[in-house]
Design goal:
Two copies of one chain form a homodimer. By secondary structure, chain A is mainly alpha-helical. Chain A has two domains: 151 residues, NAD(P)-binding Rossmann-like Domain (Rossmann fold, 3-Layer(aba) Sandwich); 121 residues, N-(1-d-carboxylethyl)-l-norvaline Dehydrogenase, domain 2. The first copy, chain A, contains 13 helices and eight strands. In chain A, helix 7 links the parallel strand 7 and strand 8. In chain A, helix 1 packs parallel to helix 6, helix 8 crosses helix 11 and helix 11 runs antiparallel to helix 12. Chain A is elongated and about 65 Å long. Chain A starts with a helix and ends in a 14-residue tail after the last helix. In chain A, 55% of the residues are buried.
Chain lengths: 292, 292
């Protein structure tokens, strides 16, 4: 997702320096007018706002505090905007460590997926100091359609955990509903259409309901990556004593999907587990075999 | 919901005859230009399209096949449009019985609640013969924003069961997410706002998420009434062998809510169960006691 986001930042007229472990995106962005840097430290020396979009918390830690990392090279008054999804506790810890150097760290995870990254309409949930957000806002605005300052450090990651809980649960609900309809001999295409007009309407029904109908599980968002989110959500819920009885059943399905080797599929492939148990496929028109 | 729907039918210029066990709505509609009838049979003698909006399947059965009911008085070629939520098996049975008299019976339950009934934008899911739907369509259009012909008799009720499964599960997901955020010291108002911009966006988050934030559980849709839907969904799923592991947890919560005496509240009151277990209230700003 970093690549289309960087393009939007360039298009908005910012001077952009990029670094990545993958050569391809860096070369492509350099050809489009960005400066290619050999290390995070080199990015830091050229920048007062740094956007991070990396897979996992250990990657954020390495890029920020590792050798040739951001922390050693950023000037006081700079802002790191970490758009990766991660753990709120770590976000608070990193913010505290960087505050000692006069550098702000915003946890600013996003929702909307690759589609919104390409359109420049990501929803950004920000935790950290309001003053730091104001300094970084023009850059964040270049990639997003909505910026919400949720609260202090960690609040962005907590909002993202809430977001992912709702996303996973809604995928499961849509899957259960479409498999139920299909098993009863009713066309899931028409059910999706009808449901989009009332209280069952959701972005997931729209996008991932259509994926289930097309049996199109090309990611999108890999089920494997959602495992990280599961861990964060359930870790938070358990440590805070918040019951999540329905999400626990959802999580069990996602774990099963990955364990059996389907982790590279889009997370809407969750429907396959229900299809197999019910002995139907949502993607097959019930008309082919006669409506019951 | 019958009252605002009848107003829209009058406003669209149809000649309308109304009957109800409650005197109030009949008098009000008579004052607005409708003809008041003393029985369903009297409505039937004046009408070629009859809309039913009654609480339960036994009410549909009584109004249709009971003494002074619709069946004995409707002319062949007439259409009954049953907009109540009910059992698909019964819908098929009633359609078959009426077909012997040359009368069509459409199962045509709705989504969107009182709000959509007042606005005239209900989503209508229709099961039954396409020809019958075409005859009734102008009247249905007066109350709805979307009409989907889902399939043969019963298909409307199956789509509604799928709808209610998604609605209940999404209420639970939003409740779990807001309680999680609130317990972690983050403002649910901002979380809702952030989530509405990405893949977690839904009509339920918009409407019922706001209800949870306001602790406004004035119905709306009474939890008690949703019990009927639960029974239909779980009956269908079990008889067809469709697993609904997450919805089963949702259903358990709704049953608990009603059993403890909160059945008269809106179904978004489901959040109260989680709030009590977590020891927080979504409606209380976390700011009041300091963000963690």
């Amino acid at each position: 997702m970093g690549r289309p986001m960087a393009r939007h930042i360039l298009d908005a007229g910012f001077k952009l320096t990029v670094a990545s472990r993958s050569r391809g995106p860096v070369d492509e962005l350099a050809a489009a007018g960005a400066r290619a840097a050999a290390s995070p430290a080199e990015v830091a020396r050229e920048s007062d706002v740094v956007i991070l979009m990396v897979p996992d918390p250990p990657d954020v830690e390495a890029v920020t505090f590792g050798p040739d990392g951001l922390a050693e090279a950023l000037a006081p008054g700079s802002v790191i905007v970490d758009m990766s999804t991660g753990d709120p506790i770590l976000a608070r810890e990193w913010a505290a460590r960087l505050a000692e150097r006069g550098v702000d760290f915003l946890d600013a995870p996003v929702s909307g997926g690759m589609e919104a990254a390409i359109a420049g309409t990501l929803s950004v949930m920000v935790g950290g100091r309001a003053e730091a957000l104001e300094r970084a806002r023009p850059v964040i605005e270049a990639v997003s359609g909505r910026i919400v300052h949720v609260g202090d450090s960690g609040a962005g990651q907590i909002a993202k955990a809430a977001n992912q809980l709702v996303v996973g649960s809604t995928i499961q609900a849509v899957a259960e509903a479409l498999v139920l309809a299909r098993t009863a001999g009713v066309d899931p295409v028409r059910v999706r259409e009808a449901l989009l007009g009332g209280y069952a309407a959701s972005r997931i029904l729209e996008v991932h309901g259509q994926r289930m109908i097309d049996a199109n599980f090309k990611p999108g968002a890999r089920a494997q990556l959602y495992q990280k989110d599961l861990g964060i959500i359930q870790g938070l819920a358990r440590s805070l004593g918040v019951p999540t009885p329905a999400f626990d059943a959802v999580a069990e399905g996602f774990v099963r999907l990955v364990e059996r080797g389907d982790g590279e599929l889009d997370y809407s492939a969750l429907v396959m587990l229900l299809e197999e148990q019910a002995g139907v496929r949502v993607a097959e028109s019930p008309r082919a075999e006669g409506t019951t």
